[in-house]
Amino acid sequence: MTKSILGLTALAAIGISMSAADSARAESISAFCAPTEYELCMTAATAWEEKTGNTVTINKMPALLDDAIPLYQQLLAAKSTDVDILFLDVIWLGMFKNNLLDLSTLIPQEDQDAQFESTLGAAKLDGKLVAMPSYMDVGLMYYRKDLLEKYGKEPPKTWAEMEATAKEIQDAERADGNSDMWGYTWQAKSYEGLTCDAIELIASNGGGTIIADDGTVTVDNPDAVEALNMAKGWIGTISPEGVLNYDEEASRAVFEAGNSVFHRNWPYVWGTSHEEGSKIIDKVGMMPLPVGKAGEKSSGCLGPMYYGVTKYSENPEVAADFVDFITGEEMQKMRAIEAAYNPSIPALYEDEEVLEVLPFLKDTVDAFADSAVRPSGYTGTSYNRVSQAFYRTVHDILAGQADAEDALHQLAGRLEKLKESR
Ligand code: GLC
């Protein structure tokens, strides 16, 4: 297959030069990698190159993962051979499954068996193994251990407790001259991350996960309305107005600058908040997210990430070998130790060297067990449109542009139609 104009345009858009793409030879492959873990991908690439003698070009994905969807769509529609390996969010697997190679015979069985069964299972679609898990992601609550101690507060069990503690500490710190202090930073920009943050609030309040596994649209209910109205009340009080435009990285910056008591994010923030440049080294606590109502469970959004090989790769075996390597035990251990990425390989949860740097790993396993799963299984190829409709509605509610009850009712009607175009 020759390179298409479309493919090259797409590659140029993310800064891959034509000469780099053109220099592809038999044992040269090319992979996408998330910008937040670029250095880790480079480490894996170098180790694999040394081991195999092949070369792999690592391409940084757009800063906002959502923006990779149209880029991938463009490359795949053009049957581009420029990129062999895609980095994939769990919610994209259904969307891209028809363009991904079946890895079941290309990845050694023992490496498949080493993964969490349910995480691997989420990548088994239409009888194919379309991708291999690389790490687990689940929404977690970070907090300032030092400030909670200073004010004699316990880590909150409910969102209402979180709100009260956040407000009290924020106000006291401001009165003490720390005028930049906020109570809670999270992600309320209009994007996929808001689907995660909102589903956590709603599910932990007994309000479900937008669409149930059997396809029933559940989002139009009083528990969901209550959860979103509570969160709306945070904007401008315990969370800056700017939170309506915060993604993970923007909100993390405020927390790590020392200006937020509580912070919702993924496991990698344990790593970044302890790196040089962070103002809160050794001041950070972490726990599963609070619950909305007694009897409900903490419902961190589940977001494992994967690597898959495109059907158009000219080097499928070499590409699968790299996928096997970067998702294998050695590299997952390296990522856990270097940057707090939570492995998708259960054996690493008992590895002493991993536990030494990630002592809280047991808590995240509990968080995986209680997690909220986005409705990508049922909605498949229409997931993106369903999620967009949801996060736009939630954003309108949080920004005070829509009434929660009316907006969720209207959304449910739209989802009834959207969910079937899968
Ligand atoms: C993280 C999660 C992913 C989620 C995204 C939202 O990358 O792993 O599943 O979709 O955040 O921003």
Structure description:
The chain has 422 residues and is α+β, with helices and mostly antiparallel strands. The chain is built from 20 helices and eleven strands. Strands 8-9-7-10 form a four-stranded mixed beta sheet. Strands 3-11-6 form a three-stranded antiparallel beta sheet. Helix 10 crosses helix 11 (222-234). The model is unreliable at 1-13 and 15-25 (pLDDT under 50).
Topology, pairings included?
Elements: H1 5-13, H2 18-22, E1 28-33, H3 38-52, E2 55-60, H4 68-77, E3 85-89, H5 93-96, H6 109-113, H7 117-121, E4 124-125, E5 128-129, E6 132-135, E7 140-144, H8 145-150, H9 159-175, E8 182-185, H10 192-203, H11 222-234, H12 248-256, E9 260-265, H13 268-272, E10 284-288, E11 305-309, H14 316-326, H15 329-339, H16 352-357, H17 361-369, H18 376-379, H19 383-398, H20 404-418
Parallel strand pairs: 1-2, 8-9
Antiparallel strand pairs: 3-11, 4-5, 6-11, 7-9, 7-10
Helix pairs in contact: 1-4, 10-11, 10-19, 19-20
Bound molecules: alpha-D-glucopyranose (GLC).
